[in-house]
């Protein structure tokens, strides 16, 4: 985990939130599973291992509160599920985090951290006066593993 429990406590205090076990556990689960893009149900399954008395409604309330306080981000990956990921430390409103690469074959979701749209955002503002606060970009395609499987299958078929 890249952020310590003490840093989480400090983040919550800075946002004026009470430090609770539930909030800390949700933040820890998201930090430990940074590239998994978890649903509230996924978070619940992991949190209840350490905190069995917690309810799913508490997870939803906690995630919503952390979202409002900009400690987590909500993402939609067009699969009908709302997913959450922990924000980058020090990133506030309007701070871009990363893009997503979505495999249409196996459904794997890979983060892509290089943001190549900064120049475009600047140009949009210069030309239109519109100030871009954030953007979301999803690339759909096929991951390396699925391409290898497909190429392997295609080679066997051609013989």
Automatic annotation (TrEMBL):
<keyword id="KW-0238">DNA-binding</keyword>
<dbReference type="InterPro" id="IPR036388">
    <property type="entry name" value="WH-like_DNA-bd_sf"/>
</dbReference>
<keyword id="KW-0804">Transcription</keyword>
<dbReference type="InterPro" id="IPR002481">
    <property type="entry name" value="FUR"/>
</dbReference>
<feature type="binding site">
    <location>
        <position position="106"/>
    </location>
    <ligand>
        <name>Zn(2+)</name>
    </ligand>
</feature>
<keyword id="KW-0862">Zinc</keyword>
<keyword id="KW-0408">Iron</keyword>
<dbReference type="GO" id="GO:0045892">
    <property type="term" value="P:negative regulation of DNA-templated transcription"/>
</dbReference>
<feature type="binding site">
    <location>
        <position position="146"/>
    </location>
    <ligand>
        <name>Zn(2+)</name>
    </ligand>
</feature>
<dbReference type="GO" id="GO:0008270">
    <property type="term" value="F:zinc ion binding"/>
</dbReference>
<feature type="binding site">
    <location>
        <position position="135"/>
    </location>
    <ligand>
        <name>Fe cation</name>
    </ligand>
</feature>
<keyword id="KW-0678">Repressor</keyword>
<dbReference type="InterPro" id="IPR036390">
    <property type="entry name" value="WH_DNA-bd_sf"/>
</dbReference>
<feature type="binding site">
    <location>
        <position position="97"/>
    </location>
    <ligand>
        <name>Fe cation</name>
    </ligand>
</feature>
<protein>
    <submittedName>
        <fullName>Transcriptional repressor</fullName>
    </submittedName>
</protein>
<feature type="binding site">
    <location>
        <position position="143"/>
    </location>
    <ligand>
        <name>Zn(2+)</name>
    </ligand>
</feature>
<dbReference type="GO" id="GO:0003700">
    <property type="term" value="F:DNA-binding transcription factor activity"/>
</dbReference>
<feature type="binding site">
    <location>
        <position position="103"/>
    </location>
    <ligand>
        <name>Zn(2+)</name>
    </ligand>
</feature>
<keyword id="KW-0479">Metal-binding</keyword>
<comment type="similarity">
    <text>Belongs to the Fur family.</text>
</comment>
<dbReference type="GO" id="GO:0000976">
    <property type="term" value="F:transcription cis-regulatory region binding"/>
</dbReference>
<dbReference type="GO" id="GO:1900376">
    <property type="term" value="P:regulation of secondary metabolite biosynthetic process"/>
</dbReference>
<keyword id="KW-0805">Transcription regulation</keyword>
<dbReference type="InterPro" id="IPR043135">
    <property type="entry name" value="Fur_C"/>
</dbReference>
<dbReference type="Pfam" id="PF01475">
    <property type="entry name" value="FUR"/>
</dbReference>
